[in-house]
Amino acid sequence: PKPSLLYSYEESDGTTSHIAFFNKPETSLTIDCVSDLTLTEYNPFNFLISPYEYSKIPYRMTRETHPDLMPYLEEIEPLSHDVKNFIYRLSNDVNDSALDFATALCSKIREMIAYEMRKTQNIQGANETFSKGKGSCRDMAKAFMQICRFTGIPARYVSGYAIKPPDEPGENPDLHSWVDLYLPGAGWVAFDPTLG
Q1: Paired strand residues for 188
Q2: How far is CA 65 from CA 62, 68, 82, 146, in A?
Q3: What DSSP assignment string belongs to 13-29?
Q4: Residue 168: exposed, middle, or buried by beta-carbon count in 10 A (0-12, 13-18, 19+)?
Q5: How far is it, in rounded angstroms, from Cα 174 to Cα 189?
C-alpha cells in the first residue's frame, strides 16, 4: 500500500527515522529500498578543531558546558601510575595537541600492544592491556577510550565488522572494535588503535 503521509526526521543521535501513515489497516507492507551511491575521496582530517581552546589537552568540559557529552567522559577504572606516566610523556611529546595526541596514541597502542584474538566476553582495561603487552581489538579500543577520557576527550566504544575481503567464499566478516572521539568542530571522529 502507498502511505497517505510519509515524513523523515533526524534523531538526537544523528540517525534518520521515517514515519508512514496509512488510511486503513493493512495485512502486509512491502518496503522497496533504492540507493544511489557516489564514491568520493574522503579526508578524515578535513576539519578544524574549534573553538581553539579544544586544540590542546586536557579538555575542560563540564556538565554546564557539555551535558550531552558527560557519559563519554566517565572514568571506567582508575589508571595505574605506569599508564598515567605514559600519557604524560606522550602528551609532552606532542605539545598537548589534542589531535596529535589521539593520532600518536593510536599508533603507540599498535606498536606496544601485540594483537591476540580472544573469544572471551570480558574486555581488559587499560591497566591490564598495558601490563600484559597484548590484547584483542576490544582491549585496545577500551584502553584507547580510557586514556582519551582521562585527558578530557569524550570517547565512545564502537563495535561492528572489519571490512576486508573474505579469505574463502562464504566466510563471515570479523567482528571488530574501535573508538569514536568527539573533537569540537569535527564531531565524532573514528580512531582504530588495532590498526594504528
Answers
A1: 182
A2: 5, 9, 31, 21
A3: TS-EEEEEE-SS--S--
A4: exposed
A5: 22
- Residues with Cβ within 8 Å of residue 38, at least 6 apart in sequence: none
CA angle 82, 55, 96 (to 5 degrees): 30
Rounded distance, CA 158 to CA 144, Å?
12
Give me the residue label for grid cell 578543531. Answer: 49
Q: What is the DSSP letter of 111?
A: H
User: Peptide bond before 58: cis, by omega within 30 degrees of 0?
Assistant: yes
Q: What is the DSSP letter of 57?
A: S
CA 61 to chain centre: 19
Higher pLDDT, 11 or 57: 57
Summarised one tens digit per residue, pLDDT across range 112-162 is 999 998 877 788 999 999 999 999 999 999 999 999 999 999 999 999 887
Q: Amino acid identity of 98?
A: A
Q: Note whether 78 and 147 are within 8 A (CB).
A: no
Nearest alpha carbon to residue 186 among 153, 150, 144: 153
134-135 and 114-115 strand pairing: parallel
pLDDT digits (tens, 9 = 90+) for 43-82: 877 888 888 899 999 999 999 989 999 999 999 999 999 9
